[in-house]
Protein backbone atom coordinates (compact mmCIF):
# COMPACT_ATOMS: atom_id res chain seq x y z
CA UNK A 1 0.00 0.00 0.00
CA UNK A 2 0.99 3.64 -0.38
CA UNK A 3 2.79 5.29 2.52
CA UNK A 4 0.17 5.76 5.23
CA UNK A 5 1.81 8.91 6.63
CA UNK A 6 1.68 10.60 3.23
CA UNK A 7 -1.90 9.45 2.72
CA UNK A 8 -2.86 10.73 6.16
CA UNK A 9 -1.53 14.16 5.23
CA UNK A 10 -3.48 14.01 1.96
CA UNK A 11 -6.69 13.15 3.83
CA UNK A 12 -6.17 16.15 6.09
CA UNK A 13 -5.69 18.39 3.06
CA UNK A 14 -8.92 17.11 1.49
CA UNK A 15 -10.88 17.77 4.67
CA UNK A 16 -9.18 21.13 5.15
CA UNK A 17 -10.43 22.27 1.72
CA UNK A 18 -13.98 21.47 2.84
CA UNK A 19 -13.67 23.17 6.22
CA UNK A 20 -12.07 26.30 4.78
CA UNK A 21 -15.09 26.84 2.52
CA UNK A 22 -17.80 26.43 5.18
CA UNK A 23 -20.05 29.35 6.02
CA UNK A 24 -20.84 30.29 9.65
CA UNK A 25 -24.27 28.71 9.27
CA UNK A 26 -22.71 25.47 8.05
CA UNK A 27 -20.35 25.34 11.02
CA UNK A 28 -23.35 25.49 13.36
CA UNK A 29 -25.48 23.05 11.32
CA UNK A 30 -26.28 19.56 12.66
CA UNK A 31 -23.82 16.89 11.56
CA UNK A 32 -24.56 13.21 11.07
CA UNK A 33 -22.82 12.53 14.40
CA UNK A 34 -25.81 12.38 16.73
CA UNK A 35 -26.09 15.44 18.94
CA UNK A 36 -23.10 17.23 17.44
CA UNK A 37 -22.87 20.20 15.12
CA UNK A 38 -20.23 20.42 12.41
CA UNK A 39 -18.15 22.53 14.80
CA UNK A 40 -18.46 19.85 17.49
CA UNK A 41 -17.15 17.21 15.06
CA UNK A 42 -14.13 19.35 14.22
CA UNK A 43 -13.52 20.02 17.91
CA UNK A 44 -13.56 16.28 18.60
CA UNK A 45 -11.04 15.67 15.82
CA UNK A 46 -8.89 18.50 17.16
CA UNK A 47 -8.88 17.14 20.69
CA UNK A 48 -7.91 13.68 19.43
CA UNK A 49 -5.09 15.03 17.26
CA UNK A 50 -3.70 17.02 20.18
CA UNK A 51 -3.32 13.74 22.06
CA UNK A 52 -1.46 12.20 19.11
CA UNK A 53 1.06 15.04 18.95
CA UNK A 54 1.36 15.47 22.73
CA UNK A 55 3.86 13.88 25.11
CA UNK A 56 1.28 11.63 26.78
CA UNK A 57 0.92 9.45 23.68
CA UNK A 58 3.78 7.23 24.91
CA UNK A 59 2.29 6.81 28.40
CA UNK A 60 -0.01 4.00 29.47
CA UNK A 61 -3.70 4.87 29.74
CA UNK A 62 -3.00 8.43 28.66
CA UNK A 63 -5.89 8.79 26.26
CA UNK A 64 -8.81 10.90 27.43
CA UNK A 65 -8.94 10.20 31.16
CA UNK A 66 -12.52 10.82 32.25
CA UNK A 67 -15.23 9.92 34.68
CA UNK A 68 -17.23 8.56 31.74
CA UNK A 69 -17.70 4.81 31.62
CA UNK A 70 -17.35 4.54 27.83
CA UNK A 71 -14.99 5.98 25.24
CA UNK A 72 -17.91 7.68 23.51
CA UNK A 73 -18.92 9.20 26.82
CA UNK A 74 -15.42 10.53 27.39
CA UNK A 75 -15.39 12.07 23.90
CA UNK A 76 -18.75 13.73 24.52
CA UNK A 77 -17.53 15.14 27.86
CA UNK A 78 -14.50 16.73 26.27
CA UNK A 79 -16.49 18.27 23.44
CA UNK A 80 -19.10 19.65 25.85
CA UNK A 81 -16.37 21.20 27.99
CA UNK A 82 -14.76 23.14 25.13
CA UNK A 83 -17.46 23.89 22.55
CA UNK A 84 -18.23 27.47 21.57
CA UNK A 85 -15.02 28.70 19.94
CA UNK A 86 -15.45 30.78 16.75
CA UNK A 87 -15.05 28.73 13.54
CA UNK A 88 -11.84 30.49 12.50
CA UNK A 89 -10.22 29.81 15.84
CA UNK A 90 -11.33 26.17 15.82
CA UNK A 91 -10.10 25.60 12.27
CA UNK A 92 -6.70 27.08 13.13
CA UNK A 93 -6.44 24.84 16.18
CA UNK A 94 -7.36 21.73 14.16
CA UNK A 95 -4.85 22.63 11.43
CA UNK A 96 -2.04 23.07 13.95
CA UNK A 97 -2.60 19.63 15.44
CA UNK A 98 -3.57 17.72 12.31
CA UNK A 99 -0.83 18.96 10.03
CA UNK A 100 1.75 18.07 12.70
CA UNK A 101 0.45 14.51 13.13
CA UNK A 102 1.99 12.67 10.14
CA UNK A 103 5.54 13.82 10.91
CA UNK A 104 5.04 13.30 14.65
CA UNK A 105 4.02 9.68 14.09
CA UNK A 106 6.69 9.04 11.48
CA UNK A 107 9.36 10.29 13.90
CA UNK A 108 8.79 7.55 16.49
CA UNK A 109 11.54 4.89 16.35
CA UNK A 110 10.79 1.37 15.13
CA UNK A 111 9.16 -0.80 17.77
CA UNK A 112 7.43 2.11 19.53
CA UNK A 113 4.01 1.35 20.99
CA UNK A 114 1.71 4.32 21.49
CA UNK A 115 -1.12 4.57 24.00
CA UNK A 116 -4.50 4.79 22.29
CA UNK A 117 -7.83 4.24 24.03
CA UNK A 118 -7.37 0.72 25.46
CA UNK A 119 -4.90 -0.69 22.93
CA UNK A 120 -1.20 0.14 22.37
CA UNK A 121 -0.63 0.72 18.66
CA UNK A 122 2.36 1.10 16.35
CA UNK A 123 2.78 4.55 14.79
CA UNK A 124 1.70 3.21 11.39
CA UNK A 125 -1.46 1.64 12.78
CA UNK A 126 -2.30 4.79 14.72
CA UNK A 127 -1.83 6.80 11.52
CA UNK A 128 -4.28 4.43 9.85
CA UNK A 129 -6.84 4.91 12.62
CA UNK A 130 -6.49 8.69 12.33
CA UNK A 131 -7.08 8.48 8.58
CA UNK A 132 -10.13 6.27 9.18
CA UNK A 133 -11.57 8.59 11.81
CA UNK A 134 -11.08 11.74 9.77
CA UNK A 135 -12.61 10.08 6.72
CA UNK A 136 -15.61 8.87 8.74
CA UNK A 137 -16.20 12.25 10.35
CA UNK A 138 -15.79 13.92 6.97
CA UNK A 139 -18.89 11.94 5.99
CA UNK A 140 -20.68 13.32 9.07
CA UNK A 141 -19.85 16.84 7.93
CA UNK A 142 -20.32 16.64 4.18
CA UNK A 143 -23.30 14.32 3.73
CA UNK A 144 -25.90 16.45 5.57
CA UNK A 145 -24.52 19.61 3.93
CA UNK A 146 -24.66 18.08 0.44
CA UNK A 147 -20.92 18.60 -0.10
CA UNK A 148 -19.07 16.19 -2.40
CA UNK A 149 -16.25 14.32 -0.64
CA UNK A 150 -14.75 11.94 -3.23
CA UNK A 151 -13.65 8.44 -2.30
CA UNK A 152 -9.97 7.84 -3.06
CA UNK A 153 -7.39 5.07 -3.04
CA UNK A 154 -6.73 6.02 0.58
CA UNK A 155 -9.72 3.85 1.47
CA UNK A 156 -7.40 0.87 1.09
CA UNK A 157 -5.82 1.70 4.45
CA UNK A 158 -9.27 1.86 6.05
CA UNK A 159 -10.43 -1.42 4.50
CA UNK A 160 -7.18 -3.07 5.66
CA UNK A 161 -7.79 -1.80 9.21
CA UNK A 162 -11.37 -3.09 9.20
CA UNK A 163 -10.24 -6.54 8.10
CA UNK A 164 -7.22 -6.55 10.42
CA UNK A 165 -9.36 -5.81 13.49
CA UNK A 166 -12.03 -8.43 12.79
CA UNK A 167 -10.47 -10.90 15.29
CA UNK A 168 -10.69 -8.23 17.99
CA UNK A 169 -14.28 -7.43 17.02
CA UNK A 170 -15.18 -11.12 17.23
CA UNK A 171 -13.54 -11.41 20.66
CA UNK A 172 -15.35 -8.35 22.06
CA UNK A 173 -18.62 -9.93 20.91
CA UNK A 174 -17.70 -13.16 22.71
CA UNK A 175 -17.31 -15.13 19.50
CA UNK A 176 -14.36 -17.27 18.40
CA UNK A 177 -12.15 -15.86 15.68
CA UNK A 178 -13.10 -16.86 12.15
CA UNK A 179 -11.01 -16.38 9.00
CA UNK A 180 -12.58 -13.93 6.54
CA UNK A 181 -11.48 -13.18 2.99
CA UNK A 182 -12.41 -9.80 1.48
CA UNK A 183 -12.37 -9.13 -2.26
CA UNK A 184 -13.29 -5.47 -2.66
CA UNK A 185 -13.63 -3.16 -5.63
CA UNK A 186 -11.66 0.07 -5.23
CA UNK A 187 -12.99 3.47 -6.28
CA UNK A 188 -10.96 3.22 -9.51
CA UNK A 189 -12.33 -0.24 -10.32
CA UNK A 190 -9.28 -2.29 -9.30
CA UNK A 191 -9.51 -5.12 -6.79
CA UNK A 192 -8.22 -5.11 -3.23
CA UNK A 193 -7.97 -8.40 -1.35
CA UNK A 194 -7.42 -9.06 2.35
CA UNK A 195 -7.03 -12.40 4.09
CA UNK A 196 -6.72 -15.99 2.95
CA UNK A 197 -8.57 -16.76 -0.31
CA UNK A 198 -9.23 -20.25 1.06
CA UNK A 199 -11.26 -18.88 3.99
CA UNK A 200 -14.78 -20.29 4.17
CA UNK A 201 -16.25 -16.83 4.81
CA UNK A 202 -16.01 -14.25 2.02
CA UNK A 203 -17.11 -10.64 1.65
CA UNK A 204 -17.17 -9.11 -1.83
CA UNK A 205 -18.33 -5.80 -3.22
CA UNK A 206 -17.54 -2.10 -3.01
CA UNK A 207 -14.61 -1.06 -0.82
CA UNK A 208 -16.33 2.28 -0.22
CA UNK A 209 -19.42 0.53 1.10
CA UNK A 210 -17.32 -1.88 3.18
CA UNK A 211 -15.57 1.08 4.81
CA UNK A 212 -18.88 2.82 5.47
CA UNK A 213 -20.25 -0.30 7.14
CA UNK A 214 -17.11 -0.47 9.27
CA UNK A 215 -17.57 3.17 10.22
CA UNK A 216 -21.24 2.55 11.11
CA UNK A 217 -22.31 5.05 8.41
CA UNK A 218 -24.23 2.36 6.50
CA UNK A 219 -25.78 -0.92 7.55
CA UNK A 220 -24.92 -4.02 5.51
CA UNK A 221 -28.52 -4.05 4.23
CA UNK A 222 -28.05 -0.59 2.72
CA UNK A 223 -25.19 -1.81 0.53
CA UNK A 224 -24.56 -4.21 -2.31
CA UNK A 225 -21.97 -6.14 -0.31
CA UNK A 226 -22.20 -9.90 -0.68
CA UNK A 227 -21.32 -12.12 2.27
CA UNK A 228 -21.02 -15.88 2.01
CA UNK A 229 -19.99 -18.53 4.49
CA UNK A 230 -20.68 -19.57 8.08
CA UNK A 231 -19.53 -16.32 9.71
CA UNK A 232 -20.41 -13.88 6.94
CA UNK A 233 -23.38 -12.18 8.57
CA UNK A 234 -21.53 -11.78 11.88
CA UNK A 235 -18.43 -10.41 10.16
CA UNK A 236 -20.44 -7.67 8.45
CA UNK A 237 -22.30 -6.92 11.67
CA UNK A 238 -19.13 -6.63 13.73
CA UNK A 239 -16.62 -5.09 11.30
CA UNK A 240 -15.20 -1.79 12.51
CA UNK A 241 -12.66 0.73 11.19
CA UNK A 242 -10.91 1.31 14.47
CA UNK A 243 -8.39 -0.59 16.51
CA UNK A 244 -9.77 -0.32 20.04
What brief labels describe this structure?
244 residues; alpha+beta; Four Helix Bundle (Hemerythrin (Met), subunit A); four-stranded mixed sheet
Write up this protein.
This protein is α+β, with helices and mostly antiparallel strands. It folds into two domains: about 15-145, dinb family like domain (Four Helix Bundle (Hemerythrin (Met), subunit A), Up-down Bundle); about 155-240, Nonspecific Lipid-transfer Protein, Chain A (2-Layer Sandwich). It has eleven helices and four strands, in the order H-H-H-H-H-H-H-H-H-E-E-E-H-E-H. The radius of gyration is 18 Å and the shape is globular. The model has no long low-confidence stretch (mean pLDDT about 90).
User: Can you count the helices?
Assistant: 11
Low-pLDDT residue intervals, each spanning 5 or more residues: none
CATH class bucket of the largest domain: Mainly Alpha
Shape: globular
Number of domains: 2
Amino- and carboxy-terminal Cα gap: 22 Å
Q: For the CA atoms, what is the radius of gyration?
A: 18 Å
Strand content: 5-15%
Number of strands: 4
Side by side, the strands of the main sheet go 2-1-3-4
Secondary-structure-derived class: alpha+beta
Order of helices and strands, N to C? HHHHHHHHHEEEHEH
How would you describe the oligomerization state of the chains in this entry? single chain
The largest pleated sheet is described as:
4 strands, mixed
Mean pLDDT reading: 92
CATH superfamily assignment of the largest domain?
dinb family like domain
CATH fold title of the largest domain:
Four Helix Bundle (Hemerythrin (Met), subunit A)
- Helix % is 40-55%
Annotated CATH architecture of the largest domain:
Up-down Bundle
Protein name: TIGR03084 family metal-binding protein
Organism: Actinomadura napierensis
Pfam families: MDMPI_N
Amino acid sequence: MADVFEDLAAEYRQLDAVLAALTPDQWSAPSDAAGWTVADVVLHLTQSEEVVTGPSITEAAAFLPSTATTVDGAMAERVAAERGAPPGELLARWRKAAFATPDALRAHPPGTRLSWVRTPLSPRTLATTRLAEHWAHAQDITVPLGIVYPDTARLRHIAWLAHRTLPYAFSVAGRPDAPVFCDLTAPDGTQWTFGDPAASTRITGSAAEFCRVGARRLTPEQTGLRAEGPDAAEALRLVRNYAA
